[in-house]
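Re: beginner question about structure tokens

> Can someone show what the tokenized structure looks like for a real chain? I only ever see the sequence side.

Sure, here's an example I had lying around. Input first:
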Amino acid sequence: MLVLGIETSCDETSAAVVEEGAVKSNVISSQLVHAKYGGVVPELASRAHQRLIIDVVDEALKTAGVTKDQIEGVAATQGPGLVGALLVGLNFGKALAYGLKVPFVGVNHMEGHLYSNMLIEKKPTYPFLALIVSGGHTMLVLVDSPFEHRLLGQTRDDASGEAFDKVAKMLGLGYPGGPIIDKLAKMGNPAAIRFPRTYLDQGSYDFSFSGVKTAVLYYLRNNRLTDHANLSEQRLADICASFQMSVVDVLVDKTLTAAREFGVHDVTIAGGVSANSLLRSRMDEACKGEGRWLFYPPLEYCMDNGAMIAYVGWMKLLRGVTSSMELPAVANLELV
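And the corresponding structure tokens:
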């Protein structure tokens, strides 16, 4: 089965073709217009999707070496995300499926990240524990079997990626903040500043990163560093390294605690923050120390991408799951 997947939940316009679960193409067009605003501007994002989606889909088909008439199913992100952005991809997918007379299925964006590690050659085995970390979400999910999963915990306030972006903005580093902080942190001392680690209630797998974000703000104010001209290169690197370590410590500790509690051998990380080099190395070290296997996708599958949507769509269509042409975009769609 050839399935076309469309992803427009935020600021990446992406389309991909999957054949029997194997990726034949994955085209991603990132919107650079948001950088000067320090974050994604919803109206600009939806307009950019409108301009880009036809070309992106055409390129995905061309790269896969197929024509639209060969497509046997269409999948598109239903949510969560920016509702205006979601509507572009969702409605385009519906119209294309209707015109081709093939089944259409809506996909939960978080399920896309959840199963993105199935796109690589060496796949995790069920049951596995998934840490999803992105700009809008941080959650731990126990995956018992395909589409049988339990949400163990999620963020109560800022997601990890959101905290990276906000701290980067405080430091005048631009958007997106994660890659910039990761790069600068390599030159800093992670023990230079003791930023807080928030673990919440005993036994809780929920997350909270607003505290460490606020701690960075107070540190800058108390040391009169809100004027970026007063920040030396080394001081900046130390702040980045210390902040990053405080976030990674919590992510690794909670993930390994859950893996022990539920007796899971395979652990996966996915979402934009899974590209973070410290998170990958610390999680890999922790998993190896306990005889567990860690899986994380290549960088192109960490970011929002059509391949993960096409893959989940393919799995659903194989099971006979389809969606109505009246399926709505849901900005706060939950993982169930």
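Each token stands for a local structural state, so reading them left to right follows the chain. DSSP finds ten helices and ten strands in the chain.
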